Amino acid sequence: MEGLPRAARPGRGDGHPEPSRERRHRRRGQRRLRGRELSGKARGPRIVFWRHGQTSWNLESRFQGSTDIELTDQGLFQAQRAAKLLSGLRPDLLISSDLKRARRTAAELAKVTGLEVDHHEGLRETYAGEWQGLTNAEIRARFPEEYEAWALGEPVRRGGGELSTEVADRSVPVVLAAVEKLPEDGTLVVVSHGGTIRTMLGRLLDLEPTQWERFGGLSNCCWSVLGQGARGWRLLEHNAGTLPQPVIGDET
Predict the structure, then answer these.
(1) Which residues of 107-131 are buried (b: 16+ CB within 10 A; e: fewer)?
(2) pLDDT band (50, 70, 90) for residue 15
(3) For residue 84, which of 14, 67, 130, 161 sits 20 to 30 Å off, Cα-Cα?
(4) What is the pTM of this model?
(5) Separation of alpha carbons 173 and 95, rounded Å
(6) Which residue is catalytic, options 52, 120, 166, 251?
(7) H or E element that contains 27
(8) Which portions of the sequence form the region Disordered (predicted)?
(9) Active-site entry in 108, 125, 162, 251
(10) Where are the domains of the chain?
(11) What count of Cα atoms within 13 Å lies in the side-chain half-sphere of residue 93?
């Protein structure tokens, strides 16, 4: 499909050192927050990672990856409902994946907050090559060894696509660059995809890549929140939303 990221590009593999930009950002943030906590000042910046609304491929349990699928009517309703709640957080900046399902979701928050949306290719879902468009059952049948390795948490180029660490390599710098633009104690909303959000959470929380799958999936239009403290980023909420929702096809 036109505009998809390259399937396999050299990047940091599992267990490699943290990129210097992320290390510098962490140290700078920790120094700033440590001084502010000691002085009794406010909480520090927050990042809200918001998954897009429902699509038809979510309902069919098809692996979307970076295929550009629209929201369903229900997905649009989910975005409108969640946007009203998220507006209560008084976000300062709003960035989004450039895929249609994320763009449409972000647009609903932009309507109620008046914020402009910055769209980024780096926030797209994992490119999964030959897996894209297939159901879980079809993937297991066609790629049994690859699927089993992925299920066991091994680094796998699903369908010849990206490693999870490569997704983090392209997405986390986009988020950190936006954090740098926040006002003091500001809130950034990042509209993205279940798999990509998982990699960003894992990287920002300093977890080993083999542990990233320990995060439960995000339901459509639910979100996770990170706050920055003196010891770095910490998880404040996970899979929060308007009402309890089942997780459907979260790597999509």
Answers:
(1) bbbbeebebebbebebbbbbbbbbb
(2) very low
(3) 67
(4) 0.82
(5) 13
(6) 52
(7) helix 20-38
(8) 1-40
(9) 125
(10) 43-128+164-240
(11) 23
pLDDT at 191 over 90: yes
Q: Which residues contact 73 (CB under 8 A, 6 or more apart)?
A: none
162 is annotated as an active-site residue: no
User: Can you state the percent helix, strand and coil of the chain, rounding each to 5?
Assistant: 45, 15, 40
Query: Hey, CA dihedral for 225, 113, 55, 130, is it positive or negative?
Result: negative
Report the CATH number of the 43-128+164-240 domain: 3.40.50.1240
The token pair that represents 105 in the structure block: 């979701």
* CA pair distance 42, 186, nearest whole angstrom: 11
Residues whose CB falls within 8 Å of the CB of residue 197, separated by 6 or more in sequence, listed in order: 49, 51, 190, 218, 224
- Per the annotation, binding residues are 51-58, 101
> How many residues does this entry show for the chain?
252
Question: Residues marked as binding for substrate?
Answer: 51-58, 101
In the residue annotation, 125 being an active-site residue is answered as yes
